[in-house]
Amino acid sequence: MKCQRCEKPATFHITELASDTPDELHLCEEHARLYLTQTEEPEEAMSSLAGSLAQQLKIGQTAEDLSRLDQQACPVCGITFYEFRHVGRLGCPHDYVCFEEELEPLIVNIHGATEHTGKQPKNGKDSTDGRTELIRLRREMQDAIEQEDYEQASQLRDQIKKISDQ
Amino acid sequence: MKLEDLARQCGEWLRGSGPESDIVISSRIRLARNLADFPFIRQCNESDRFAIEKNLKETIFSIGKWKDLSYVDVNTLAKVDRQFLVERQLISREHAESDGARSVAIDQQEKFSLMINEEDHLRVQVMHSGLALDSAWKRINEIDDLLEKHLPYAFHPRFGYLTACPTNVGTGMRVSVMLHLPALVITRQIEKVFRSLQKISLAVRGLYGEGSQAMGDFYQISNQITLGRSEQELLQQVNDVVPVLIDYERKARQFLVRESQKDLHDRVSRAFGILCTAQTISSEETMHLLSSVRMGINLGLIENLEIPMVNQLFIHTQPAHLQKLRGSELDTADRNIERAHYLKNHLRKPDDDSAEKN
Fold first, then answer.
1. Do B158 and A126 touch (CB under 8 A)?
2. With an 8 Å Cβ cutoff, are A128 and B155 in contact?
3. How far apart are CA B114 and CA B121, in angstroms?
4. Residue in chain B lying closest to A100 (CA)
5. How many DSSP H helices and E strands does chain A contain?
């Protein structure tokens, strides 16, 4: 069996009895050591909470469903749902759009709600979706440079400049 | 502003004034914001981080009234200096200990700080002395509005302000109040208090301690939920609970005064005595004893010593502060001696303000 945090074989099998349902963790030696010796501040504790709640998404799904879900990647930043589940942190603002359905139960679990009722930014002209395009374009430009496709990189750079200057 | 200068001054939340300051040390509000055109920090490469840092730094200093803020590049800072900023609550431990381009802009009076590239691109933090959440909110709201004019914040019509971790999404706001609760600890009611707070989704955390162990009997109460309630509602929740806790603590203190006056007086006097005469003393022991002394002052059992001085002692006897004040690095054993020395100097002559003149 593989470690839940990396690709090495799991040699530590830990059952946590802190909540109503026992939590089973299967970790390699290194991640087990980290897990057992971590001193958590509440901010960190809450984000590993997000990670472990994300693990709980498993309960309502079949192994097939979950592995399909895990392979979904954000078109803008490239993070996969698998990576999010194991780290507890998202990759970019667009993840809230492309993973909206999957994030909803997690967010309900944490906050007991899914609709924001507080302050809003006053300048509506800068919509987030328009700006997150830049993340994708920069990533593609980086890839183009790495593959030495400098013409493509240059086109992307011009596109980026056009949007940034708006 | 050099860090050594900062060490000598008394920052906002150390003033020991502000409402209910016998029990409430400080009120703090933090807002998490991200730029819409960059990945969240974890997914950023080094050049993204530099670009975000540059963008935010330029924006902050383009604002007229902030031209005198101190800008600190945390990434290139020595470890003792980072620790110093953490002790002073100007940056989080996470900010001090992570890697990559990151920095902080600090107000001269230490009423607010702007962390760049912490868990989110921007974390704004306001701290006021005593119980002062409404004025803290007013200040942080203004800061947020000022920045928002120049920055494309990542925002979703449904989920609100977008953050790297879903536990902060929505308002991105963490409201916390730091309380001194020695009597509730002595009368063993503190566990009960924790459990009832957790039932209404408020988190309790000890100050400076590992995990939840509270050193010096200081506890931080904060909201856990950030989505589905407005900023006002979240503030109100904490604002409603704190007076109840203050009342419990005051009643517990009165109980101790009534029922075990002699023991209480003895405890406080012994604490004061050790602090005045020890030749070497650890930071843990100092926190523990200062906590008794602080309560003793509030109950009129110790004279000739004021709360602001005690607050100052709490901070100046922390490891990094001792070293900054001394002007050199010290190992643990030397720090313990330096600490005892510092305490002697400041407790024996409570009117001496040579610390500020240094």
1. no
2. yes
3. 10
4. B159
5. 8, 2
